Amino acid sequence: MARQQQSRAVVRQRSEHSLPVRRLASWMPVPHPASRTSGVRGRIPWSEVVNMKTILLVDHNAEHLLEHSDLLSRAGYRIVTAQDGKSALFIIESGMLLDLIVTEYTMPDMESKQFLATVRKEAPAVPVIVVTCCDSVECYIHAVNMGVYEYLNKPLLPGELHRIINSASHARQTGNLPAGLA
Description:
Rossmann fold, 7 helices, 7 strands, single chain, two-stranded antiparallel sheet, globular, alpha/beta
């Protein structure tokens, strides 16, 4: 009897400091195994969950989406994904707190002008990084005029994407965003 009460107390104590993975939202990734608490399988320290930066990844190519999502979740970011503009706008308009948006320039369901204009209207302080195969000057100028933080051409090097995301995240945190993003 005493042993049961003791084990319940231990479980209660652990649950106060960590959150079971199964109770997390379906879009929240499990951080890299090295960042998990030792001895408690399947639990993430609450402090890590609260401090994770949330990035919305938008790309119609499922392979690129999975690759970038995996890379960034292993780097400690909470990743939300969308495969088209309408899904991404639904996430943005839902009021989810986003720290950064990484999006493909061309989308199958809407024009990038419409998407970027809505993002600027709904989430003006969130930095947007555009990743694209489109290397035209017109696309670049349009993206810059819409206030994107960075415009990158595919294929991306993993270190390059991670460096720019860190830079954008730091700029937002310190308030050093370009004039169009404040």
